[in-house]
Amino acid sequence: MAYSLSLSLLYLGLLCGNGLVSARGSELFTADPSRGPHFMGCRSREQETFRCWWSAGTFQNLTEPGALRVFYKTKKALSEWQECPDYTRTVENECYFNKTYTQIWTSYCVQLRSVPQNITYDEACFTVENIVHPDPPVGLNWTLLNVSRSGLHFDVLVRWAPPPSADVQMGWMSLVYQVHYRVRNASHWEMLDLESGTQQSIYGLHTDKEYEVRVRCKMLAFDNFGEFSNSIIVHVAQIPSKESMFPTTLVLIFGVIGVVILLVLLIFSQQQKLMVIFLPPIPAPKIRGIDPELLKNGKLDQLHSLLSSQDMYKPDFYHEDPWVEFIQLDLDDPAEKNESSDTQHLLGLSRSDSSHFLNFKSDNESGRASPKPVDLPLVSRSSSSISDLGIQQTSEVEETPIQTQPTVPSWVNMDFYAQVSDFTAAGGVVLSPGQLNSPPVKKKEEENEKKIQFQLVSDGAYTSENTARLLSADMPPSPGPEQGYQAFSTQDIEGNLWNVEYLVSANDSQTPCLVPEAPPAPILPPVSDYTVVQEVDAQHSLLLNPPPSQPVICPHSPNKHLSAMPTMPMGYLTPELLGNLNP
Amino acid sequence: MSRSLKQVAVLLVALLCLDPHSRVSSAPICTHGPSGCHVPSLADLFDRVIQHSARMHSVSNDLHSEFEQYFLPSKNHIGKIYRKCHTSNILTPNGKENAQKLAREELTEVILKLLMAWRDPLFQLHQSMADQQDFNSFSSNKALEMGDMAHELRKGVEKVAEKMRVLGMLGNSVTGLSAAEAMLPLSESGEAMSDYELLYCFRRDSNKVQNYLKILKCRIVPEHDC
């Protein structure tokens, strides 16, 4: 008896040692077929009731209901083993403990017994709060928070409700939740942190991918998670990115086309410049204002007109330089001269080469460079005075003194003077040719006389046309024909214009007086070429007297001739005399 | 005669000096009134206390699971199951309905009793854990923190009880807990409980306190569906 008792106790102890279920042994839901009858697990859903499940195991003869029975005992004083208060009818091998039989914070032990044999196959001890597995949350849904700018990612907010069986409002159960999500049909679930509220955000999901989201809960400060809720599908369709790509490609294409058009326009607009850069032209000789073709063709008239329009012909120069005292007379070699006279040149009757003009030009600088104080009745004229009259005189005239017998210059054939015959509308002076058929001697004498009678003009330059007009306005018309000249028109101005330059000889010129040495030549008609310079105005132009009506017998000697001038001294006018003349 | 006269004079002077108004009595700085002080409502007090108890329970759970994981891998529950906690003598409602059926005063008293019972054992727990080399400093600090939290929670619950008494929600049956409640944690066999047993018991009791406070709040502070 004692032996059997000890044996049974030993066997019981072994069973107890083997069959102990941990306090949290609620994971044992899979029946272990290799074992005998055992508890699969005990669970509480809301911390108010709990259930226990068992399995017969390999002992097939115990599968019929009632063969195995559950006894429980609470860890309290004076407690006994009691049988399961409720064997669930609907579920096989389940023992249900309702609220009455459930005590929290109390240790329970349940035993699986076979009553006929009085064998305890399994035992489990636990406390109810440690076997609580809350029900899954309900009402899981999601809302879209935002979509990223690129349209590749989005965020969602997931919401749920606590399980209805859990009394969270009173706080009997404090639940915390855990959200899982994964790409659909993937193997790995992403876990988020425990959340005590009933919503959570999921960030960084990819568009065009389907996600599975589920949630489960457990009691705060306990370790047993409940079952997962039903999974929901989260999916956001990707906004077609072609629209965003489309404008960029268009912009690129238009940009390239625009740049190409700009380049083409640039090339066409700058074609000339580009041609110059790439194919520079060969420089050709060029005179400003003159067509090179004209020079080639050699049309002298046009060339003459062109050259005459140049600045060098302008008579304004002598205004700026009033103290050029001498009129330079060019004395060209007779060999260089053409047979035609200068007057003819002036009048444009003959065609001469441009050498005269060139010579003429060359004396410009010499004449203007140094106004020489001359004691001689030299008439020097700057080249600028030639403007319209174009009279040329050589410098050899300077050499010859007045008193000396005037040598016959080699230029005797040259006409000094040209009668102004007419005025153009533009104010130009038209010259009439001089007396060509006069006898050379007489002409010579006349010329000598004229030469002698040349007085030094104040500034040795012709006045401008305007001044000449002014002067001529005061002059009465010169009477009578001139003697030495042929075409002496009745116009006033021309004669007076001509006479501007000559001081003393104006009176004399009108008189048919001759030089005493000269043979008595026919009285020359009074030439109204000459007049008396009345005064010099502020502009340094000469104001002339009208010529006297009667010819006055000129004195024999030029000195007398000179002294007979009431107003003007004979001979050239020095600057001092000119200064006296000034008002 | 002169002696008695002196005594009478002294007595008279004492009587005169004992101005009732001059007696110093403790009065709260914040008197009733909206201006100046913010007096928390009873609901706020309960919320604070419940939050505190939840935190205390969480710490105790962490310590317990850590203990189980590192020091008791064998899961030998036989001994554990049959050990009794020193607070098992305190009658506590073991279910939701039982707690709801209990009177407010009794519930408050249970809470205070539990908290009071753990004042010294927790100090002992910390001491033993600090002494042993097995525990790291983190665990011993947790034990110390746990002890402090239990102490603060007790003070808080006392304040709540005072407030309830002032508001007339509690009767005067709640007696001041004296030193008589302090019990020594002794097992059945008379041995001192081990650290693991202490942790196990405290974890259970902290959960009790948390739930009791919630039930009490629900009954005192009228809320929706409570």
TrEMBL record, chain A:
Stretches assigned to coiled coil: none
Family assignment from sequence similarity: Belongs to the type I cytokine receptor family. Type 1 subfamily.
Protein name in the entry: Growth hormone receptor
Subcellular location, record wording: Cell membrane; Secreted
Listed GO biological process terms: endocytosis
Spans traversing the lipid bilayer: 245-268
Residues covered by region (Disordered): 360-379
Its membrane topology: Single-pass type I membrane protein
TrEMBL record, chain B:
Keyword Transmembrane tagged: no
Coarse class of the protein's main subcellular location: secreted
Gene3D superfamilies documented for this protein: 1.20.1250.10
Origin superkingdom: Eukaryota
Source taxonomy: Eukaryota, Metazoa, Chordata, Craniata, Vertebrata
Official protein name in the record: Prolactin 2
Species this protein is from: Carassius auratus (Goldfish)
BP GO annotations: positive regulation of receptor signaling pathway via JAK-STAT; response to nutrient levels
Keyword Repeat (UniProt): no
